[in-house]
Write a structure and sequence with these properties.
alpha/beta; 11 strands
Length: 341
């Protein structure tokens, strides 16, 4: 496949399995998606995991002298390690040498680097991390934000998350009129604390979104909502709980289905179906999370990301670039600001 003109900067040193799995996923993306890949990190380590006879067209190694460890304090590390791979990758986007950036390393460091180097979009008070969850409706994911960038959120922040999530859901996830929900303890308009009540009012009054009301915990995976907003404390707990539940169910299937002769025969027959179940439930199949609200396309992956997840994240980044998500966000908030002036 020929190059699409989209270039993705990859923090090759970020993640539990860096750089081998990062490079493997990036090389697959280069071949199947036609994107240009900029691998950022220790040149010797990166070259050591690139298979012999690899087609180097559309592939570039950008040296970085340092890497940020998972136990580093993110903001201090980003400031002190100016030549860290995540900083160099962000600078490529800032300087228009890359269209998007991806890192499976320290998520706090990725967010800090994005804020310091790319800055916030005008009109956005706080960026949010948005991640895609599968639902019981095949092919209909739900975008949850924030899942960790902001532990405490003002109602105004949740309104901004809803607008950003609506644009992403529409133009990348393909939902024509995304239904927005506010995560709450009840579906009634009067439920929740003071912040939830005020957020509900702001969302209901916002004509830029299709607000469908409160979403309870049981509604998250129902497929009835396309975007659900919440503060980063609740969202992060929800994210990690959902990942754990998915892993438990998959493990139970692996252990229980092959039991006995009938189980072994049944498992062999159902193998294609079980593979599809894994693809729908396993968080590693859904790529990375988009950092919405910064002045650039930035995806953050799980620290445990392996090659298939890296490929999925790069695909999502390419789709965000192709569908001009950043430009649409910039335009939307220019309109909102002009209306408020």
């Amino acid at each position: 496949m020929g190059s699409t003109g989209v270039s993705i900067a990859i923090d090759a040193m970020g993640g539990d399995y860096a750089p081998a799995e990062i490079v493997a996923g990036a090389l697959r993306a280069k071949e199947e998606l036609g994107v240009k890949i900029l691998l950022v990190g220790d040149q010797q380590q990166i070259e050591a995991v690139i298979p012999p006879k690899t087609n180097m067209v559309g592939l570039e190694i950008v040296p970085a002298q340092e890497a940020i460890a998972m136990d580093d304090e993110p903001l201090n590390a980003v400031r002190k390690k100016r030549k860290a791979s995540i900083n160099v990758a962000m600078d490529l986007v800032k300087n228009k040498q890359a269209d998007a950036v991806f890192s499976a390393g320290h998520s706090g460091a990725a967010m800090a680097s994005a804020l310091l180097r790319l800055g916030r979009l005008p009109g956005i008070d706080r960026p949010a991390i948005g991640t895609v969850f599968p639902t019981i409706k095949a092919g209909k994911p739900v975008l949850i934000l924030d899942v960790g960038a902001n532990v405490d959120c003002r109602p105004k922040f949740l309104e901004q998350f809803a607008v950003m999530g609506s644009i992403y859901s529409q133009y990348v996830l393909g939902m024509p009129e995304p239904k927005i929900g506010l995560l709450n303890i009840g579906e009634e308009d009067t439920k929740g604390n003071e912040a939830a009540l005020r957020a509900h009012q702001l969302l209901r009054e916002n004509t830029q979104i299709n607000f469908s009301g409160n979403a309870e915990g049981r509604d998250v995976l129902s497929g009835e909502f396309d975007v659900i907003v919440c503060d980063g404390f609740v969202g992060n707990v929800l994210l990690k709980f959902a990942e754990a539940v998915g892993g438990v169910i998959l493990q139970i299937l692996r252990e229980e289905l092959p039991q006995g002769i009938r189980g072994q025969i049944g498992t062999a027959i159902l193998k294609p179906n079980l593979k599809r179940v894994k693809q729908r439930m396993d968080h590693a199949e859904h790529g990375g999370a988009l950092l919405l609200g910064v002045n650039g396309i930035c995806f953050i992956g799980h620290g445990s990301s392996e090659a298939p997840s890296i490929f999925s994240a790069i695909r999502m980044a390419k789709e965000a670039v192709d569908n001009q998500v950043l430009q649409r966000l910039q335009s939307q908030y220019q309109i909102l600001q002009s209306e408020s002036d």
